Amino acid sequence: MSTGATLRTLVSAEKEIMRLSRTDKGAVYEFQHKFRHNPNSPGLHLKQLKSDLKLWSARVSADIRAILLHIVDQDYLLIDVKSRQEVYDDLDRYSYKVNRITGGIEVIDLQPVGDSIIGRLLPPEAEPLFKAFTDTQLLELGVAESLLAHVRTVTNDEELLSLLEVAPQLTTDVLLALYDGGSYDQVRAQVTEPVRAEDQVDPDDLVAAVSRPATQVTSDDEALQTMLGESFDRWQVFLHPTQRRLVERSTTGATRVGGGPGTGKTIVALHRTAHLAATLEPGVDKPILLTTFNRNLAADLRSRLAALGGQALLSRVDIVNVDKLAHRVVVENNVGSGRQLIDDSRMAKRWRTFLAEIGQTKWDAEFLNAEWIQVILGQALTSRGDYLKTRRPARGRPISREEREDIWWLVERFTTWLDSQAVWTWRQVAAEAARLETERGERIDDAGVEVTVRHRYRHIVVDEAQDLSAAHWKMLRAMAAVGPDDMFLVGDAHQRIYDNHVTLSNLGIDVRGRSARLTLSYRTTREILAAALEMMTGEVYDDLDGGADDLAGYRSLLRGGRPSFQGASTWEQEKAKIVAQLRAWGNPVDGSVAVCVPTRDLVAEVTATLRDVGVPVVEIGPDGPDGGAGVHLGTMHRFKGLEYQRMIIAGVCDGLVPRQTINHFRDAEPKRYQRERARDRSLLFVAATRARDELAVFWHGTPSPFLTHRLVQQQAG
Questions:
Q1: What's the rounded Cα separation, in Å, for the pair 180 and 530?
Q2: Which fold has domain 239-326+438-518?
Q3: CA dihedral of 505, 510, 513, 516, whole degrees rounded to 10
C-alpha cells in the first residue's frame, strides 16, 4: 500500500527550476505530484545522499535530480534541482541551518560563493566592507553563520552582489542596509526586529522551523503549476517574511502599514484580504471591503485579487473605489437624485460666479473654495457649531469667530445655489455618505431605544490610504465595528498627490502600537531610487496620525545604470530629446516605455510630436491606459499605481514643477503654499519611482528646484 508524503518547495529552489527548459519544468511538476502520492515509488529512486546529512535525492527525469531536505517522517523540503552528474559531487557545498533570528530554514549552495570569493587573497590596500562590525554583531543581526567568513572577504559592491546571489533573504537585507550606511542599531530596528520569530528558536528543530513564515515555501499544486508554466508572478505565491508577518497576524484593532514605492504595500493588502477571506465561515455575502481612492487602481486590485485567489475569493470581497462606495450610500438613501456630479477642480470657477451674482467682494473665491473643500467638506462638518470650533490644519492665515460665521453663511448659500443647478461634487458626496453612514449606526426607534444595526463589513482593507479625505475615513469607520482585524491600511505619505491631510486618531481610527513600515523596494534600481530620494530632500511628511514620516532605511536589491538628467534651451529642443531617447530605446510599443509630463497641454503637444515622427501613442486616462500598442503618455497624476521598464519625465522645469500658480499663496497662505509645493514634489517622486530599469529626466530653461544641483550636474547635454 502506498504512503503519501508532504513535499514543500523552498523559494530558493525557484531560480534553479526557472532555468530549466519548459519540458524539464513540466517534469518537476509531475515529480512533485507523484512524490506526494507515493515517495517510495521505484521510479523516483529516493535515496539518502550521505549518512551524516539529512539530504536525499530523487529522480525527476533521466537527466534531472531533486535534492531534498528530510524534515521528519514523510515530510520533505525540495531545496534544489541539479543535473544527474552534479548530484553526487561535493555535497558538503550545501549548508542548511535554522536562523536563530527568524527561526526559518536557510539552505545555501556554497559552491558559487567559493568560485568567486573563497581562497582569494585581499590586496594590501583593500578594505573589507564590513570590518566595522564584529562577528557577534553580524550574527545578532541575522547574517547566516555559514557565510560569515565570506562576508569578511568582500571589499566592493560587485563582490557583495555576487555573494548576495546565494545569500538567504535576511543576510541580504542586513548586508545591504549596512552597506548603505545604516548603523548596527538602525539595521537591528529596521531590518532584524520586524522578522524576529515570536517564539523561542531551537536551531535543531526542523519541524518547527519549516512551519514558520520565514521558511518561504509553497505546497499547493495549482501555485506550482502556475510557476512552472512561466505565468508566475512572485507576489501571487511568496511574501517576504516581514510582509507575511503583517499579512497573517491577528490584531486588536486598526493597523497601518507604510513604506516607499515598490515595497509591496499593495501586495500585502491583497494577501491580507485573502488571509481574512480564508477565516470566513461559508456564505454568499461580502463581509470584506477592499478600497482605494484612484479608480484605475481599484480595477487593478480586482484583477490582481482574481489572479491571487480566483472567483472564490472575489465572491467574498467588495472591491470598489471609495468615491463610488460613497455614491452607493447616498443613492441607497435617495439623496442627490437627479444631480450631476462634477469634479472638485471646477468649483473655484463656480464660486467666482456665485460671489459675483450676490455682489460679495469681501472674500476671495479661491480662499472660500479651499475652506469649503478642505475644512468643511474635508472634515465632513455638518453644523455651524462644529465649524466654529474645528481646527484648520495647514490652512495658513487664521480667521476670527466672526469671519467663520460669515464663511459658514456663505457656504450655506453656495450649496443651496448648487442645489438649484442640480449639481454637486465628489467631496459633497463623501461628506453626505459619512453623515448617513454614521447616523445609520446610531438609530433610535420610536420608543427611544437604540436599534442595533448590522455593520456593512467585518473587515476593511484600504490601499493608498494617504489619498483618502477625513469624510472618507468617517464613512469607513462607521462601516465596520471597532474590534480585532477591523481595518488594515497601507499607504505612503510621500506619494500623497491629492490635498487630503488627516489625523486618524481624531476620526476614531486608533493605530497606536499597530503600525509597521516596509523598506525594501522590489521595483526600482538602487540608482533610480537614490535619485528619487534626492528629489525629496528637505520635505517633511506626516504619518496620517499626527507624527512625521520618513524614508529611513528605504533601499533596493536591484542594480542598474544611472538615471539621465538632460536640459534643453527650449521646449522644441526638449521634445527633440524625447524623440531621440525613444529611438535610442528602440521605440518599443509593447507598453514597457512611458513618457510623463506635468500638464494636459504638454500631453497634447508630445502626442502630436510623436505621431508626426511615426511613434504610436497610448494616452493614460482616469481608468488607466486606453489600450492598443504604443508609448504610454500622461500627466504625473495618471501614473499612480503603474510601472514601466523605462520612463521619460519631461517638462521638469521651474514654473511647471512646482506649478507657478501656487506662488500667490507664498505670502497670503504660507502653510498652504508649503502643502501645495510638497504635493508637487510627491508627484515627481511618484513619477520617478514608476521606472524599473531606466529613467531619463528632461527640462527646458531653468530646471525644477526639486532637481538638486548634484542631479542637474549629471546632465548629458
A1: 11
A2: Rossmann fold (3.40.50)
A3: -80
Q: Which residues contact 585 (CB under 8 A, 6 or more apart)?
A: 593, 646, 694
pLDDT at 294: 81
Written as one letter, the residue type at 210 is: V
User: Per-domain residue ranges for the chain?
Assistant: 239-326+438-518, 340-421, 557-712
SS3 letters across 495-530? HCCCCCCCCHHHHCCCCCCCEEEECEECCCCHHHHH
Continuous segment of H or E residues that includes residue 462: strand 459-462
Over residues 396-454, the pLDDT tens digits come to: 677 888 999 999 999 999 999 999 989 898 888 998 999 999 888 666 455 555 656 68
Whether 690 and 642 have beta carbons less than 8 Å apart is answered as yes
Task: Indicate whether 518 pLDDT > 80.
Answer: yes
Q: C-alpha grid cell for residue 476?
A: 469607513
Q: When comparing pLDDT for 261 and 569, which is higher? A: 569
Report the residue count for the chain.
717
CATH class of 557-712: alpha beta
pTM, 2 dp:
0.73
Which cell numbers in the block locate residue 321? 473605489
Please name the amino acid found at residue 206: L
Distance CA 53, CA 15 (A): 23
Quote the pLDDT of residue 697: 96
